[in-house]
């Protein structure tokens, strides 16, 4: 779907216009033309984005931005597969018809940086006092940097949330309490489960990361595999037992799409997944728990509560864009303090501390949810997967012991095998990175 605003002289939004009058200047992005000179004024600024609530919300304000820069804006909204395929085709061909890119900093930024596809934004974000780069949450801000260069700006953030049945149980504060309550409440003869969550080999790694961190583990330590260490094995065993003894049958085949409806239909006491999906449980068309669902922070393990806090989507500039200055102006506008507060007030979690500290931006969330998100936005870890070029392959290796634990198999031997495989993978991945 491609959307081009057709009336750049439409009346602007007064509150944002007043607040942002000083924010669209700033330094120019060096080397604004990728060759062939500056495009004509009739050439639109082209934004390639995921079809997401954030991009849909920003699209409504494009006329205001067009009026500011005197140029049309074309925003293409694609599925994740379409977006990935378009980037692969166009950027491999050094195409100049992409200016602003919506990217997943944790999934593809390292690869895009390796390929030279993203422009360096370091001087722009750090040298602009009005933009206030330090206002961005620490973990998402750190994930925007590759090889000491800022290559993207986070616009949507995500954390894990403990969804629970507040009519059945109080929110557990620790992982030990979660395990005890999940095992106690599970009643498989009645088709009721103490816990439901992702169990599919690769897809489960994201949610398992918070368990790993809270047991004191890490995917890598000083560039070496950490998944064979005692802390990681304990996290594997815990997660496996939780789903094996308190979860539904067939858990190893469950991704978000299979796990979420089980909780929404009132068939589970606990569910850990992204806070972004909370509206599914408040929608009476798909949920039977809208009056009984509770929202709590991720429980503490031996190393404390260490949930991930990630930039699920960010904005970058194509290295081949011939409108880099205008592209930066768009990013600066779309990720400004004023716009982030406005969008977060509409229920889209942003990446700025000032927005998270403003009660008005949290009014659209249920109070218990807002408190949980606020706490985890301050303390979360900026990774929910290993920081490698070949993310999919890495997740597949790391997911093997997860599946073993869910199937009730001994985790230790499988984890040690996966650790050796992951260690070899990291050597090869680093060689590709340095090539």
From TrEMBL:
Tree of life domain: Bacteria
UniProtKB keywords: Sugar transport, Transport
The UniProt record lists the keyword Transport: yes
Name of the protein in its database record: Multiple sugar transport system substrate-binding protein
SUPFAM superfamilies the UniProt entry points to: Periplasmic binding protein-like II
Source organism (scientific name): Nonomuraea jabiensis
Pfam families named in the record: SBP_bac_1
Key word Transport present: yes
């Amino acid at each position: 779907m491609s959307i081009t605003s057709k009336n750049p002289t439409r009346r602007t939004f007064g509150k944002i216009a007043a607040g942002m009058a000083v924010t669209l200047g700033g330094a120019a992005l060096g080397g604004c033309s990728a060759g062939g000179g500056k495009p004509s004024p009739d050439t639109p600024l082209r934004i390639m984005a995921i079809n997401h609530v954030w991009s849909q919300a920003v699209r409504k304000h494009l006329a205001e931005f067009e009026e500011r820069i005197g140029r049309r804006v074309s925003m293409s909204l694609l599925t994740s597969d379409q977006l990935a395929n378009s980037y692969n085709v166009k950027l491999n061909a050094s195409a100049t018809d992409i200016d602003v890119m919506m990217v997943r900093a944790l999934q593809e930024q390292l690869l895009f940086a390796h390929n030279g596809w993203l422009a360096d934004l370091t001087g722009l974000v750090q040298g602009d006092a009005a933009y206030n780069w330090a206002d961005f949450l620490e973990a998402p801000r750190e994930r925007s940097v590759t090889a000491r260069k800022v290559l993207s700006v986070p616009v949507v953030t995500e954390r894990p949330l403990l969804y629970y049945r507040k009519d059945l149980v109080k929110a557990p504060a620790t992982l030990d309490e979660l395990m005890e309550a999940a095992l106690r409440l599970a009643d498989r003869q009645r088709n009721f489960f103490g816990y439901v969550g992702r169990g599919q080999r690769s897809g489960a790694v994201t949610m398992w990361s918070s368990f790993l961190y809270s047991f004191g583990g890490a995917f890598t330590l000083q560039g070496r595999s950490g998944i064979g260490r005692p802390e990681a094995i304990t996290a594997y065993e815990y997660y496996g037992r939780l789903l094996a003894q308190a979860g539904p049958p067939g858990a190893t085949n469950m991704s978000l799409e299979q796990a979420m409806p089980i909780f929404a239909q009132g068939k589970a006491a606990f569910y850990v997944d992204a806070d972004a999906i909370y509206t599914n449980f408040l929608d009476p068309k798909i949920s039977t728990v809208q009056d009984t669902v509770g929202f709590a922070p991720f429980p503490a393990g031996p190393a404390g509560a260490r949930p991930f806090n990630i930039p699920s989507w960010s904005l970058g500039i194509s290295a081949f864009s011939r409108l880099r200055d205008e592209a930066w102006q768009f990013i600066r506008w779309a990720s400004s303090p004023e716009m982030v507060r406005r969008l977060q007030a509409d229920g889209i979690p942003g990446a700025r501390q000032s927005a998270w500290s403003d009660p008005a931006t949290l009014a659209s969330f249920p109070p218990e949810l807002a408190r949980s998100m606020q706490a985890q936005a301050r303390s979360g870890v900026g990774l929910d997967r290993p920081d490698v070029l070949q993310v999919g392959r890495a997740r597949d290796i790391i997911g093997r012991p997860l599946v073993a634990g869910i199937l009730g198999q001994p985790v230790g031997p499988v984890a040690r095998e996966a650790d050796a495989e992951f260690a070899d993978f990291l050597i090869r991945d680093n060689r590709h990175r340095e090539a």
